[in-house]
Amino acid sequence: MTGDGYVGAVDQGTTGTRFIVFDHDGSVVSSAYERHEQRYPEAGWVEHDPVEIWENTKTVITRALGRADVGPERLEAIGVTNQRETTVLWDAESGTPIYDAIVWQDRRTTDRIETLERNGSTETIREKTGLEPDAYFSATKAEWLLEEADPIKMERARPADVRDRAKAGEILFGTIDSWLIYNLTGEHVTDVTNASRTMLYNVHDLEWDDDLLAEFSIPEAILPDVRPSSDEATYGTTDPDGFLGAEVPVSGALGDQQAALFGQTCFDPGDAKNTYGTGSFFLMNTGEEAVESDHGLLTTIGYQRSGEDVQYALEGSIFATGAAIEWLEDVSLIDDPAETAELARSVDSTDGVYVVPAFTGLGAPHWDQRARGTIVGMTRGTRREHVVRATLESIAYQTRDVAEAMEADSGIEMTSLKVDGGAVKNNFLCQLQSDVIGSRIVRPVVDETTALGAAYAAGLAVGYWADLEALCSNWRVDREFEPEMDEAVADERHERWIQAVERSRDWARDDR
């Protein structure tokens, strides 16, 4: 363990970028946050400006250090965590993106996925990558950028020029972690967890897969070097002549959900966490075994430390949870997310109303790209309180869907679930979640576990923390929630939820 320095973490999420400074206890010393623009150029398309994200990253790093009165030379390492699957292509020489980043929520490549399914490629993709073929992942996004994008940043470049330059290694591909590490260090790398979300990486052989690269016409020359999540060799250092004015190692990176798994100290097989953000992501550590799912879950890489085997995880990806709360605000049913608990408590039930927030399709365990948001069960007596409560309940029901699939695949009965993310500050939701899944919900003191996981990975790599046991000693419980609802009532309401889900499915068709 080193002296009185700190470790910083860039947490680049779907709606904004945060930088948090942590101390040895894993406590937050200071933080800063900036939102970025959400762009929806066409129905089902979602884009971000990578340059705006990088500028915001510099801003929040500088602001957080200033608030703590911590000079950059006292940062012993920086870790990066990121919205996964979101895809960027940029010019290797200038560092300029050729197009906006295509966000994980984007559905523009749905037809391409359906072509893969008709061609019988589904099982091959599952076997190699552990993923369910879906527009969610990076492969079809990168393919679209190479084939279809009308570049908005490069001078008069045409799509054909982009592909030719990509083959020559003059265009680089990355998820947001790669984009940020490139700008921080000048190095083109990613970590195993983010690579495992591209649908181009073989999670068993631990390498980019030649067959998948050929399927999506992705030149190997554009791909980043894949490194451990906690890398003693480091990914590089910040430029002492750059915005920080100091040479700081960037030594850890994980996709946001794996970072939360690491930050929640889920180091043993069977340990599980659920993160409630824009979507919700339920991960269970399965150790050195890549468990194949028979129930609509993903097999993914949980993390890897330098010189050690990768640790795998089962994942249930839920596309819209926090996004469902944002929708309530968008349509003026609430003025602020903090209102939801009070409004939900003001009624005894949803009065038969169910909200299925399939705004960008359904993820695990249903996997329906053409499902769309649905409200069922409304009457003239339905009030906004019922819709708000039904929206909160949808978060809990989606989690139960995944929990049941997780137990079926793993053979492990879940007695407790660690939770994190912005929504878990809502005590009503935490209690509701406990009631619906029939398990204890455990909320930690530090709920910024995504950033904490990235900090832990970076700090372990440089010796700031000695070992995993030191991290476990930092983890502290804020509150636990035990089931209070009658099990038969919970089962009956969940069964009605499943019926509502069926009514949302296969809706977004060109002829409708």
TrEMBL record:
Residues in Carbohydrate kinase FGGY N-terminal domain copies: 6-263
Keyword field contains Cytoplasm: no
Residue span, Carbohydrate kinase FGGY C-terminal domain: 273-461
Residues reported in the UniProt entry to bind sn-glycerol 3-phosphate: T14, R84, E85, Y136, D256
Entry-linked Gene3D superfamilies: 3.30.420.40
GO MF annotations, alphabetized: ATP binding; glycerol kinase activity
The protein's annotated pathway: Polyol metabolism; glycerol degradation via glycerol kinase pathway; sn-glycerol 3-phosphate from glycerol: step 1/1
Ligand binding (ATP): T14, T15, T278, G322, G422
GO biological process entries: glycerol catabolic process; glycerol-3-phosphate metabolic process
Stored CDD domains: ASKHA_NBD_FGGY_GK
Protein purpose: Key enzyme in the regulation of glycerol uptake and metabolism. Catalyzes the phosphorylation of glycerol to yield sn-glycerol 3-phosphate.
UniProt family annotation: Belongs to the FGGY kinase family.
Protein's UniProt name: Glycerol kinase
Lineage: Archaea, Methanobacteriati, Methanobacteriota, Stenosarchaea group, Halobacteria
